[in-house]
Amino acid sequence: MINACDRVDLPYDGSSGPVTGSGTGIPRNVIVEDFTGFRCVNCPLATEALEQLEGVYGDQLIPVGIHMIDFFCEPQADPEHPGFFLTDFRTPDGQAYENTFEVFGIPVGTVNRTEDNGSLLIGFGAWDGKIGEVLSTPADVDIKIKQAEYNAGSGQIDVQIDALFDNAVDGSHNLTIYLLEDSILEGQYDGSDVLENYLHRHVFRGTLNSTWGDQFFTDASPGDSLRYEGSFSLPSSISSAPSPNPDIDISKCEIVAYIYKSGFDEYEIIQAEKKHVDM
Amino acid sequence: MLLNQNQRTRTLLLILLVPFFIAAQDNSGNQGQISGSFQIDSQYYTEDTLTGAIPPDEDVGINAWGYLTYTLKDFEVGMRYETYSPALLGYPASTLISYSGSGIGYRYAKYKNDLLDVTVGNFYEQFGLGMIFRSYEERFLGVDNAMDGVRLRISPLDGVYLKGVMGKQRFAFDNGFTNGPGVVRGLDAEFNLNEMFSALDTSKTRVSLGASFVSKYERDNSSLLQLPENVGSYGGRVLIQRGRVGFVTEYVHKENDPNVSNRDIYKNGNALYSNLTYSTKGFALNLTGTTKDNMFYQSSRAVSPFDLNINYLPALTKQHTYNLAATLYPYATQPNGEIGYSGEISYKIKKKSKAKSKIAQLLGGKYGTKITMSYTQLNDLDTTWIDPSQSFDVDLDPSRQGYEVSLFKAGDRVLIKDFHAEIDKKISKKTKIKYTYFNFVFDQGLIQGGGKELPTVFADIHVAEIGYKVKPKHNIRIELQHLATKQDSGNWFTGLVEYTVSPHWSFSVMDQYNYGNVHPNAKLHYLIGAIAYTRNTSRIELRGGRQRAGIFCIGGVCRTVPAATGLTLSVTTSF
Q1: Cβ–Cβ of A11/B558 closer than 8 Å?
Q2: Which of A177, B387, B456, B529 could cross-link with A208 by S-S, CB 3.0 to 4.6 Å?
């Protein structure tokens, strides 16, 4: 008992760290949904933590910044910061996630929508450990985004996704496609500071195929391959004006496709992939 | 056979309930005793376009608790059954977890004799003032960090009280409670010198000394930092009572504990709390001082400030009860750093006072007058970040200490100033009046997390209250409250009328009116009416109306409490 204190003098000097990757099988990717808002003073801490973790987990980590809770992200002119805090990063899809996952406070997030101590919402301090845990087992299915191309003529994004199964996957599963816009300069509260040109990374702008995606398969067997394709309009919260679209910079957009278990009250993501949108 | 959490809970419940059915009687025919209490809070929600209140899909929320204990001589078992179907909006306090379903929320078995007291299962416990260990339930707020494990209390010698605890803490509720990931272990010793030494037995000065040690364990699963898996804390306390004077002080120290609330710094934490009281007939004085730095102490590094707290930091500010003073700008203790003091004085001017002052004679009158005043001020600590950019540059701060601070030096930032003065007078056989003035300076930016762009709120509140005995058993009470501020949502008025027919009935109507809001759409009335019926230990209350949305923050996390409009039924009973 008296020895029950660990003194760490050099915290950066090595870490016991999580076990990641099994070396065999399909590498798993993990989506971290960072529920955030530009008027949330503590949210940059979570985003910074996520950026640090990108350095550890590389492309296997897919960060998504979803702005939610009106109090923290409702656009409102601020006389002291003219021209800032006017972008509406809220989306109907994000609002649906806010309601479904009962998000009352931020920053908080999900890690592949897996539970941690019985909770789907995970504080950012626990993301690291949870990501390590999720990545420690190979995936049953591989996803390849073959095509993610913006068609200026139709104003739609053409998408083609292939899924190849290594193992059997039971139950009903959906496939959802997110549209993200990366590196947007907007205001951000940060502790006791208000930053005007904060770089908002991987901002969720909506889904391409509805909030909860499309039903993709029920019960897949090893060796099965499935294709999902279509041309999708931009999310309804974004105008479909021709380029340059005042609402979105397509050249900075990326799509994230993920498969999740879609039974009653089930949301766990079993595999995900990200691709930059070609113009 | 491997059992999951729910199966384990059900199995334990069966074991616990066995005495009720087959062994509720010992050899001498003593049948033991069952006692219990029940509470049901149910709310029906409706949409309110003016406040933005949105009902949940289920339209109705319900929180219910039933608590039963069975005692047979030295043996006791107990359990609490809980239902959240679904939980009321904004419940529990945590921003991370939810409560859902029905199941066992608390269960224990306890045996006690002259030497020891042992508990297995859930228990609430506190060491000293609780600054390194307090396991407790604050049901109204939705905070419950009950321990689940074992507790031993031993008193081997007169005046020597030893406690040992080990277990996990309650975290969420999903058809039964679930525990957090960390393990908490603790020892506490208290020595009552007057009981220990016969020479001091009759001394007017009563002295107790105490010491505690607590440690938590949580696995290091970080890929970025080497985290301490065992985090210890310890402290000592002194309690002295001599006649009308009482003094208590406690100092605690916590070893390196990087966590989400302190930005993963490896600095030690410290806290000191001292309280001096003096009371005599008609006069009471209470002085308190505190300082604390880096004292979030939770059995998980990455939960919200509402979850899995191992310790409890006593609040310095007075808990006001009048609506406007209590609900608009409540102060939340800042575990990451605050220093301050508070004083409260109350004096009763005797009836028929013979003091020379005419005012005193007037206040004394036929029934006397009670005057109470209090003042609290808390500042941040004078803190210097080692790496001014606070970006945790490895070269600048390789040991990740974060900042340098003096525990006894206040910073420039005033977190709260809270002054209140109250005069309470019975003016006739049937009439009592009370007038209260409050003055707040409230750092809304820091306390409610809005950043420095939110101005400090300066608020004046006046409350006039009158109680009148209409006829035997019939009383009416009226409160008129006014809050004036140029900041935040501007001026408020609250009016309350309560009519009581003792001992059974109570009727009340309250209206909060935000008439000073600069936004015309927000100049709203929040009207609530309530009827309550009480008989013996049972109470039924029905209230309906509009509750305003709020935001409250602890440490680094803010949560919104949604607006709600509808009907609430509350039932409590005990036996």
Answers
A1: no
A2: A177
